[in-house]
Amino acid sequence: MNEKKLMIKSKGILNQIGLLGVIAVLCIIFTCLNSTFIAAANLMNIVRQSAVMIIVAMGVTFVMISGELDLSIGGVACLTGMVVSKLLTSGVSIPVAILIGLLLGALLGLFNGILTTKFNLPSMIVTLATMNLANGSASLITGGTAIYNLPQEFEFLGRGFIFGIPAQVVFMVILVIICGIVLSKTLIGRYALAIGGNADVAKLAGISVIKYKLLYFVFCSLCASFAGMILTSRLATGQPNLASNMMMDTLTAVVLGGTAMSGGEGSIAGSVMGALLLTIISNGLTINGVNSFWQMIISALILIATIIARRKKD
């Protein structure tokens, strides 16, 4: 067992070193193509752009390590953004609206977890249904139209600064540190790895598989809800089509970072680097005038190539 853990850890480290190498090469290539890529303002912009993806990736990482999938994250973010926007324009205070938004995310995560664990349904099907449910509900709130005139103070989440650093970047860094500690140093993280490695063995070892999977699903939806509020704050409007690419981008980042879709393997650092790599590609292509639709195609191809490469390694 110790040899297996050591092998997984070594493979994770090698994957992260490989990601760093790819990131470095891409930075050199994009800088040669356009010198503005390496400008301090653009580098900060890359970090800011990746912050939301990284926040969602934290939750997705725990769910995937435990052997499940959550495809509802984009819908959860969208519905949360619309609900919070509606509350704010109805006179509800910002703290209360944010708490309600997080509660909504937690309930959707609990819904996913209960259907997956208690009813033994495939998480991919359950969360895909939840995504459609959330997206449909978001459009029903206003009949598919955007919500404007949000309080200016709410814009702090997506546009504000803390000691000169974008607020969303600060939130992201804090969450990454907490998740890194939880995954590597606490029972919550160790149990995720154990459950993803072999749920039956974990159950025989006395681990409450259902309870911890519920926890991971709730946490994942909380991350998506928080991300939805940040995006809504950044746009200063509630958009019924918010976070349409979140699911694809985040899953690609997490898989690219070394988290196994079958569970039992993954790291916080890998997911962060996967998200940064995708953001660098998107930013570099945008600076060089590449159509955004091509960026979607490239993201899909990266995901497919990564899965194929992992299958061959395994």
Write the layout of secondary structure elements.
Blueprint: H1 2-33, H2 40-65, H3 73-89, H4 94-117, H5 123-142, H6 156-159, E1 161-162, E2 165-166, H7 167-185, H8 187-197, H9 199-204, H10 209-235, H11 246-256, H12 268-287, H13 292-313
Antiparallel strand pairs: 1-2
Helix pairs in contact: 1-12, 2-7, 2-8, 2-10, 2-11, 2-12, 3-4, 3-5, 3-10, 4-5, 4-10, 7-8, 8-10, 11-12, 11-13
Features:
single chain; mainly alpha; 13 helices; 2 strands; globular
According to DSSP, the number of beta strands is 2
Identify the quaternary structure here.
Answer: single chain
**Largest sheet, if any?**
2 strands, antiparallel
Q: Helix amount, in percent?
A: over 70%
What integer value in Å does the Rg equal? 19 Å
- Runs with pLDDT <50, length 5+? none
Strand order of the largest sheet: 1-2
Mean pLDDT value: 92
How many helices? The count is 13
Strand content: under 5%
Structural class estimated from helices and strands: mainly alpha
List the helices and strands in order.
HHHHHHEEHHHHHHH
Distance between the termini: 17 Å
Structure, described:
This protein has 314 residues and is mainly alpha-helical. The chain is 76% helix and 1% strand. It has 13 helices and two strands; from the N terminus they run H-H-H-H-H-H-E-E-H-H-H-H-H-H-H. It has helices at residues 2-33, 40-65, 73-89, 94-117, 123-142, 156-159, 167-185, 187-197, 199-204, 209-235, 246-256, 268-287, 292-313, and strands at residues 161-162, 165-166. A two-stranded antiparallel ribbon has the order 1-2. Helix 1 (2-33) packs parallel to helix 12 and helix 8 crosses helix 10.
